[in-house]
Amino acid sequence: MRFYELIRFAVGAIVAHPMRSALTSLGVVIGVAAVVMMTAIGLGAQQRITGAISGLGSNLIIVMPNFQRGPVSQGAGAGQSLRDADAEAISRQVEDVAAVAPSVTSRAQLAADGANWNTRIEGVTPEYLIARDLVISNGRMFDEREARQGRKVLVLGATVARELWGDADPVGRRVRVRTVPFEVIGVLESKGQAGLGQDQDDVVLAPLQAVRSRLVGRRFRGDAIQTIYVKSNEAETLDRVQEDVVNLLRDQHKIRQGEEDDFQTQNMASILATMQAAVATFTIFLAAVAAVSLVVGGVGIMNIMLVSVTERTREIGLRMALGAKRSHVLIQFALESIALSMAGGLLGLLIGIGGALTVAKLAGWPAAIPPWAAPLALGFSMAVGLVFGAYPSWRAARLDPIEALRRE
Amino acid sequence: MIEFRDLTKVYVMGEEQVPALAGVSLTIERGEYVAVIGPSGSGKSTLMNILGGLDRPTSGSYRFEGEEVGEFGDDALADFRRRRIGFVFQSFQLLPRLTALQNVELPMIYAGMAPAERKARARELLDRVGLGSRMGHRPTQLSGGQQQRVAIARSLANRPDLLLADEPTGALDTHTGEEVLKLFQELNGDGLTLAIVTHDPDVANEAHRRVAFRDGLIVSDERSGVAA
């Protein structure tokens, strides 16, 4: 007989009981929708994290003082073990380094022309732009000389510029940082809201020396720095540069073998890899939980298929009397189960995509629908139909036609 | 055409062995109209099941046109039923979801016939049994007699060598029963071989040959004068 006739039989049986078929498929609809949604949201999170971390600068190594040991332990970065000399040594002695940027950070209130804004102020050198992949959109960056002299000039992040002056050009204007007057000489190009809930444009840059002497005050000794950003030439040299930096700083700080470092280095690439791995694990976990409902949906299909085989025992007997082979009966019922499951899978896919996009819109959370979502959802629902339809179909095909015809 | 030799059928029920046929030898020629009669439990239904290829004998030989049907596997038996046998049941056995036309098409679908061809033949057959105007009706919209005529049209779909009817009038009133029997006479007149299982002596008298069963054995085999 022709195969498409078996498909017709299967679809005919499904259409004959629309309500029952819809309810039977519901389990698979929910299962597939949940898997698609979880995967899309998980992948979206992964993309967001990737964007956020690479937004901090590529091929970047961050060097910070280690924990302050002693009567009062403080967090990472609170120590003062790093000095200007360390940054200079790195830029002189480590190969394949594109930029070395020492920095100190503080929060400060900015006031100008009747507006004021609280922001993060970074005391840096011009190389900071290269290290963090920043671009000046308007005006200019301060140069080496101004940085060394501690000139009271500022380069504003886009958010700060907007908050203080709206759309007007801030270059040349005066700002008071706390009580100290500064002059705005440039504005950074926007990096967007890509941070981990952090606005990367909410920052101002000032010469390292100016911040250290005028703003951070007594907390810092004259040549202490909080962070050194080291950028390698290429991604390939990142690990080696990090190793060299560690060895050099141990030398500089005269740390003996076996002693703990008084600083720590973080490599953006490895942070990214770690976070991506964490999110991927979480995504798989969510999808696996969702997949459980797919299995429950499959059991629902098996249940109804068993009922259907029992109900249609006489029909099966008749078909056999009319010349249907056992394989014909087997395939007819297997196709019925697969069709039910795949119809559910298709609907679930659409609902899952719709749900992911809705969540993305409502929660401001990005959703990435991978191109393989459709074939995967349909493939999975087909497999569910096949696996859970196998036993009922086998039961139908094993029926004895005489017994089956006699059944009421 | 059909030859049974020393046919036995034993059902095993738990530890007990129940003989349904105890050594039956019977020959049916092409064009015959045979009634199989006997009380329930006499073995006549078992005989019909074996005859129709729904069941296999325990021992003995069943030859159909020279082929040893008793040795067929499941698939060969399915082919045999589809090509050789037309079944008519007491309870009609129509699929309620399908129209009269679709019910008649069903055996031809299993035979792999193209849709246009099988629809044409199904229409022809329903015309032949006098239901040309009811082809789009579902079984529930038809009377018992009409349903049985749809079933007869279906049994003829693949041009069987043998039409097997199990109490074909058992669920019908006298009048519609007579109509069905008249149809059988016509089909037999056209050369179709018929075998009917029945309790009813009136039905049995329609046939040209009556084979009576008791306790799994043939107790009488008589022919009317008109027998072929």
Structure description:
The complex is a heterodimer of chains A (408) and B (228). Chain A is an alpha+beta fold and 408 residues long. Chain A folds into two domains: 3-52 and 274-406, no CATH class; 82-261, no CATH class. Chain A contains 13 helices and ten strands. In chain A, strands 2-3-8-5-7-6 form a six-stranded mixed barrel. In chain A, a hairpin with a 2-residue loop joins strand 2 and strand 3 (115-124). In chain A, helix 2 runs antiparallel to helix 9 (268-311), helix 2 (18-55) packs antiparallel against helix 12 (373-397) and helix 9 packs parallel to helix 12 (373-397). Chain A is elongated and about 105 Å long. Chain A starts with a helix and ends with a helix. The model of chain A has no long low-confidence stretch (mean pLDDT 87). Chain B is of the alpha/beta class and 228 residues long. Chain B has one domain: Rossmann fold. Chain B has helices at 44-51, 74-84, 100-110, 115-128, 144-155, 174-189, 201-206; strands at residues 2-13, 16-28, 33-37, 59-64, 67-68, 85-88, 162-166, 193-198, 209-214, 217-223. In chain B, helix 3 (100-110) crosses helix 4, helix 3 (100-110) runs parallel beside helix 5 (144-155) and helix 5 packs parallel to helix 6 (174-189). The longest helix of chain B is centred in the last third of the chain and has 16 residues, at 174-189. Chain B is globular and about 50 Å long. Chain A binds chain B through residues 1-2, 5, 12-13, 16, 314-315, 317-328, 401-402, 405, and chain B through 49, 52, 54-55, 74-75, 78-79, 81-83, 87, 89, 93, 95, 97, 106-107, 109-112, 154, 158.
- Could you give the order of strands across the largest sheet of chain B? 6-7-8-3-9-10
**SS elements, strand count of chain B:** 10
Percent helix of chain A: 55-70%
Beta strands of chain A, count: 10
SSE order of chain B in H/E notation? EEEHEEHEHHHEHEHEE
Number of self-contained structural domains of chain A: 2
Chain-averaged pLDDT of chain B = 93
| Count of helical regions of chain A | 13
The global form of chain B is globular
| H-E order of chain A | HHEHEEHEHEHEEEHEHEHHHHH
Instruction: Give me the number of helical elements of chain B.
Output: 7
Helix vs. strand class of chain A: alpha+beta
Structural class of chain B: alpha/beta
Specify the CATH architecture of chain B.
Answer: 3-Layer(aba) Sandwich
CATH superfamily of chain B: P-loop containing nucleotide triphosphate hydrolases
Strand order of the largest sheet of chain A: 2-3-8-5-7-6
Structurally, the number of domains of chain B stands at 1
